[in-house]
């Protein structure tokens, strides 16, 4: 454990930084290359951009789609659909997106191993095109089932994209640019949300005769990615570590880094590969049964549940209905919705008979959005990586992803019924979740900033009832990275960090 602390990497998220930095003062800083920018932009365009677009695109045409459901029901059964049934069908249409996302997240590991990071992103466009066709043609085919299936398929696309894209971007980026390149993911999500809101305006596609074109638009970013991404390199780490293609990895490094001599990068990946080959990766079952990590797992579950159950997606999915119930005029709502487009969302709304209350409600939306962005918005997945060492991290991210998508599904499915039952008090449910989550994190979660994994595990040791001096537990917490072999080579590989897949 002492050796582990002494060799702590100052950049824990950089997997390849496994040996002392011999950078000299004469070495020129790397500049971002056109190949790297194109890979980041077009990779995100067909992935995270579509995810963001699908969060908001169902909001504007909600009334038109419900009308379509009613007409279809009348044609089939000769009677109007019940109010409760149409609410159920609509909530299923919205929330089944998360079920597809869960399925996509579960199968992405296999896909990235079989066909690579870039290959997975390219294959994923097939799901986007199929979903676009189902959603766009559902009205013409008089089939609301096509809309539900289309949302599910689009969810699969998003579940794969939100895992494969960060993996690809993390592996192609130089260490000093990893944060900036990674931002393409979050920026394109926000841009996708905003695009869905803009196209949903009455002046564009937010009309009863045009709403199906909102879903046809899904195919455009996917086709653009299909036109560009095949001409860009695969992840050099995937090529070298999993395909053993050193020539291909060298060529990819040269393209992404914009330099001829990439021997240092190749050696770092070789060292990383040697370390991973000696590492036992724990399963989800092993993680859940490890007493030394019990409260870390509980903390991840609570954090990810609060991330969704605080009302995050209730706003994206149902903004128009919420503002309509708050008292805003119908013709004003689409333009008010636009002001939330560039911000991660959370809201708490109260409304009554006073004319000024709608504006107070909207102010509350913006205030809590700002709070969300400055607090939990970017933390849950980062925290998951900090609470677990390398051998347990993949299993931890699997648990976090499952909780995230299941909670997302619950919000999408149940919120319309909560709104009907509780009306203006619906968001009090989310308020309770936020308060309970905040209390839990205040008393249980230690500060992780600038702390090693050993420090964090020791912070949890008391509540886990694990003695600090227990050798067996210390061995479980230490990274099994072939330290003997690395010491013979003058290297210490104990602190190799794994890039997350979520």
UniProtKB/TrEMBL annotation:
Ranges where the Major facilitator superfamily (MFS) profile domain occurs: 40-449
Main location: membrane
Subcellular location: Cell membrane, Sarcolemma; Cell membrane
Keyword Membrane set for record: yes
Membrane-crossing residue ranges in chain numbering: 32-51, 88-112, 119-137, 149-169, 181-201, 213-232, 297-318, 359-383, 395-418, 424-445
GO cellular component, one term: sarcolemma
Membrane topology: Multi-pass membrane protein
Protein name: Solute carrier family 2, facilitated glucose transporter member 5
Catalysed reactions listed for this entry: D-fructose(out) = D-fructose(in)
An annotated GO BP: dehydroascorbic acid transport
Top-rank lineage group of the source organism: Eukaryota
Lineage: Eukaryota, Metazoa, Chordata, Craniata, Vertebrata
Stretch list, region Disordered: 1-28
One Gene Ontology term of the molecular function aspect: D-glucose transmembrane transporter activity
Entry's family note: Belongs to the major facilitator superfamily. Sugar transporter (TC 2.A.1.1) family. Glucose transporter subfamily.
Skewed-composition ranges (Basic and acidic residues): 19-28
Keywords: Cell membrane, Membrane, Sugar transport, Transmembrane, Transmembrane helix, Transport
The keyword Cytoplasm appears for this protein: no
């Amino acid at each position: 454990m002492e050796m582990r602390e002494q060799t702590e990497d100052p950049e824990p998220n950089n997997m390849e930084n496994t040996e002392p930095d011999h950078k000299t003062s004469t070495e020129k800083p790397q500049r971002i290359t056109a190949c790297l920018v194109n890979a980041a932009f077009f990779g995100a365009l067909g992935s995270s951009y579509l995810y963001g677009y699908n969060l908001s695109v169902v909001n504007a045409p909600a009334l038109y789609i419900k009308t379509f459901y009613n007409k279809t029901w009348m044609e089939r059964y000769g009677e109007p659909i019940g109010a409760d049934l149409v609410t159920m069908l609509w909530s299923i249409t919205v929330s089944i997106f998360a079920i597809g996302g869960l399925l996509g997240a579960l199968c992405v590991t296999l896909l990235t191993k079989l066909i690579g990071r870039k290959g997975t992103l390219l294959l994923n466009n097939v799901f986007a095109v199929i979903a676009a066709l189902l959603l766009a043609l559902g009205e013409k085919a008089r089939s609301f089932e096509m809309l539900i299936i289309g949302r599910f398929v689009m969810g699969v696309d998003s579940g794969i994209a939100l895992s494969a894209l960060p993996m690809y971007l993390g592996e192609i980026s130089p260490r000093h640019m990893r944060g900036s390149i990674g931002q393409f993911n979050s920026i394109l999500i926000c841009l996708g949300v905003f695009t869905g809101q803009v196209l949903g305006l009455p002046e564009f596609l937010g009309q009863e005769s045009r709403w199906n074109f909102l879903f046809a638009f899904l195919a455009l970013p996917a086709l653009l990615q299909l036109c560009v991404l095949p001409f860009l390199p695969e992840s050099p780490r995937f090529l070298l570590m999993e395909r053993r293609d050193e020539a291909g990895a060298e060529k990819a490094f040269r393209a992404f880094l914009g330099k001829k001599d990439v021997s240092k990068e190749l050696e770092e990946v070789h060292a990383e590969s040697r370390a991973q080959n000696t590492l036992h990766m724990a399963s989800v079952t092993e993680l859940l049964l490890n007493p030394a990590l019990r409260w870390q797992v509980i903390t991840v579950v609570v954090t990810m549940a609060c991330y969704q159950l605080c009302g995050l997606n209730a706003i994206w999915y149902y903004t128009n209905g919420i503002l309509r119930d708050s008292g805003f005029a119908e013709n004003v709502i689409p333009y008010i919705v636009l002001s939330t487009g560039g911000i991660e969302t959370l809201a708490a709304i109260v409304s009554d008979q006073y004319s000024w209350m709608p504006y107070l409600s909207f102010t509350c939306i913006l205030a809590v959005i700002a709070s969300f962005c400055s607090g939990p918005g970017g933390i849950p997945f980062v925290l998951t990586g900090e609470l677990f060492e390398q051998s347990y991290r993949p299993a931890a991210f699997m648990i976090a992803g499952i909780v995230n998508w299941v909670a997302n599904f619950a919000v999408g499915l149940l919120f319309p019924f909560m709104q009907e039952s509780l009306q203006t008090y619906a968001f009090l449910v989310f308020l309770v979740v936020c308060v309970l989550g905040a209390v839990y994190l205040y008393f249980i979660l230690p500060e992780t900033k600038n702390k090693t994994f050993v420090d964090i595990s020791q912070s949890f040791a008391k509540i886990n009832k694990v003695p600090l001096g227990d050798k067996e537990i210390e061995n479980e917490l230490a990274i099994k990275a072939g330290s003997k072999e690395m010491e013979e080579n003058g290297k210490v590989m104990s602190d190799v960090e794994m890039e997350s897949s979520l």
